[in-house]
Structures are given as structure tokens and as C-alpha cells.
Amino acid sequence: MPKPGELTFAVPRGAKKPPRHLADLSPEERKEAVAELGEKPFRAKQLSQHYFGRYSTDPADWTDIPAASREGLREALMPDIMNVVRHLSCDDDTTRKTLWRLFDGTLVESVLMRYPDRVTMCISSQAGCGMNCPFCATGQAGLTRNLSTAEIVHQIVEGVRALRDGEVPGGPARLSNIVFMGMGEPLANYNRVLGAIRRITDPAPDGLGLSQRGITVSTVGLVPAINRFADEGLKCRLAVSLHAPDDELRDELVPVNTRWKVREVLDAAWDYAERSGRRVSIEYALIRDINDQAWRADLLGKLLKGNRVHVNLIPLNPTPGSKWTASRPEDERAFVAALEAHGVPVTVRDTRGQEIEGACGQLAAAEK
């Protein structure tokens, strides 16, 4: 039975369950798992150090573990769950998009973006998405299945390893920020996303030891799940994909708005901000002649002013065959000015990755 506040969006039947992986398990569960294999519980700590501390899944590297035990541990706790189909790079190779093939052939994407002062990784939490937003390439594909905790975490582990090994120009670097803004609605895969956040932020060697404050979780506005997320006591940032300040248009752009209206979503977001101490990010894709009118900017400013909030305007990354496209530069500037007139902090997102099929879900769709 679902817990209070837990959502039950349907996942297509027939999906195979991903094999168990070390990253799916809590530290205590890892001890139990190695004990079931006839190994001493401390082997769990050794495996965790190899995976979360050295980013290694190759038993040949596990020299502190008896050779006779390595393959059995690998098969039971570090099976191959996903492999790189291809990397595509742009922006002088500082933006790298990765297409992954999961154990069952499912395709998902992640993006690593290196800036002068930080490195951000955008990760997927579902294969496809069931929210049906019409301007989104992932939404057009529909939902295939939820990702497991390990499938989410492994995207990050591989990104951290690539940075350490200098695969992204600029020399070795550390990952600064993780954004759950890739394929899928994170809060519709609540338990696995929460598990991934725990693995990402658990102190080494039990996890990657990254800061909760460097994690942003995006949602289209699943109010019960936002409320539940607030109860977790985390310091992650919440990003609300709003895209329209009025219910009439948002019902069309973000269909889940027919269940939870704009003010309900924002009320839940303000509660999260109050309890977490973090300001909320409002994500707003600017779409030409659809949601970029001056009066909508004014309405948005009135809804947001006085709250702990920041608006992230996103010039739409159009997908092939779509009627949706980015706003005119003059309309974008006017939208920014209207928000600033209400004292609402606003930035326009740096557009990266258009030449590598950068819209979320676009590369996976092309591969299919």
C-alpha cells in the first residue's frame, strides 16, 4: 500500500526489474547482502570504498579482497546495469551528453556541464516521462519505466570518475551540482530518487559524500510528494517547473495542473522553502507567443514577490517537428524586466547542447 502522500502513477506492465546493485542498498543492507554470500560483513565497506571512493567496478582493482571472492561479489552486488552508447560533446567539449543503454535495452540520458566556476550534472530519474507536457521531447515519448536507485546513482559515479580522470577538458575537477532535471518526473519515482539522494550524500565510503545543498530536485508540481519531501528534513533545492502563472494555460502546458492548481503548487513550494531554509527555483520555459506575454510576466511577478524564490527562465530548446519554439529576444528581455519590477530575482539559463540534440529525451528518441 502507498504511504500517505505517495503517488501511484502507473508504470507500463512487463518492465523487467533491474538487478540488485550495491548502490540500491543502505550500508546495513550491504552488510546483510555480503553475509548472505558467506562473506564477512566488513567486505561491504571494502566494496563501498571501491565503488563510491574509487569509482571502480572492475574486480581486478579490488586487491584488498581475496581473488576467490571477487567475482561472486561482483555478480551479486555490482552487476552491469548500464553501458554507454555514445558521448556527444559541444562547447569546446565542456558539455558532454551521454546516452546510456540500461540492462534491459532502455535508453536514458545524462549531461555533464563544466563552467569556469563549477561543474553541474543533469541526470535522469525515469526512462521517458508520464507527465505529458506537450513541448518536452521526453514527455512526447511517454513513460517506459522508473529507474532504480543504482541506475540513477551510476550516472553520477561515472560523471565523477570522468572528471577525476580528466575526460572533460580543463583538467581534473570535482562535481559541484547535481540537478534531477533529465528524463522523468523525479517525485513520481519518489522512493528511488530519495534513495539516490541518500547514496549521493552519505559520507564516504558509504556514499559519494556530496552536499545536499548542491542537489536540485525538479518537479512539475506533485503537491503530495512535495509535502512528503519537505518531511524528509533535507537541504536540497526544490525546482518547480511552472511554465505558466495562470491555470488556463498551465492546464495545457503541464497537464498535471488539472489535479493541483498553480496556487496549490506554490503553497507547497513555499512550505518546503520555509522548512528547508532553501529558496525555491521556478523553472519557466519561454515559448514564443504562448507563455511569454507581458501580462503573464506581471502575473508571475505578483504571485512570487515576497517569497524565498528565484526564477530561472529557459529559452526553449525546440525539438524536430514541434510547433513550440523559443521566444523572441525582445520578449525575453521584457519578461525579465517585468519580474525585476516586482523585486523577483531572475536569470536566463545559459543555453547549451542544442547542436548535440540537447533537449532532454531528444538523443534517446533519435537512437530509437
Backbone CA Rg: 21 Å
Strand order of the largest sheet: 1-2-3-4-7-8-9-10-11-12
Number of strands: 12
In whole angstroms, the N-to-C terminal distance is 35 Å
DSSP strand (E) fraction? 15-25%
pLDDT averaged over residues: 92
Q: How is the CATH topology of the largest domain named? A: TIM Barrel
- What is the succession of H and E elements? HHHEEEEEHEHEHEHEHHEHEHEH
Q: How would you describe the shape?
A: elongated
Helical fraction equals: 25-40%
Specify the biggest β-sheet.
Answer: 10 strands, mixed
Q: What's the CATH superfamily of the largest domain, by name?
A: Aldolase class I
Uncertain spans: none
Pairing-aware structural class of the strands and helices? alpha/beta
- Return the domain count: 2
Region (Disordered): 1-38
Subcellular location: Cytoplasm
EC number: 2.1.1.192
Organism: Streptomyces polyrhachis
Describe the structure.
There is one protein chain. The protein has 368 residues and is of the alpha/beta class. It has two domains: 22-77, DNA polymerase, domain 1 (Orthogonal Bundle); 82-367, TIM Barrel, CATH 3.20.20.70. The protein is built from twelve helices and twelve strands. Helix 6 (190-201) links the parallel strand 7 (177-180) and strand 8 (215-219).
A few lines on this structure:
The chain is of the alpha/beta class and 368 residues long. It has helices at 27-36, 42-53, 67-77, 137-141, 149-164, 190-201, 223-231, 247-253, 262-276, 294-304, 329-341, 362-367, and strands at 82-90, 95-102, 107-115, 118-122, 126-128, 143-146, 177-180, 215-219, 237-241, 280-286, 309-315, 346-348. The model has no long low-confidence stretch (mean pLDDT 92).
